[in-house]
Model the fold of this input.
Amino acid sequence: AETYQRLVERLGLDVSKRMNDLTPSDIIKIRLIKALSHEPDLVVIDEVWQGLPQETVKAVCETLVEANAKKNVAIVYVCGAREAGRFPGRIAALGLQAARRPNLEASASL
Done:
């Protein structure tokens, strides 16, 4: 319970909001709190900050760096190539380029 409350405070989540009133930022915060409150050995994240306000991105990044440094949580995140290298320590980035669509006409002729 202590870890949960600390994460709620750190990320600035308003737990009194109704489900219908949650923003995309709130949902990301809830998912992160849910994942980290169990003190896992590994967290895998996929494009967690895409489209989020800068203050939420900063809070999420700081929370992940803290989990890595203090709790020795290994973190793997999937991101755009520009975001790769955002974190120090045992935090691995899978910086991916935009996927190319296959040429279905060429494939059909094979």
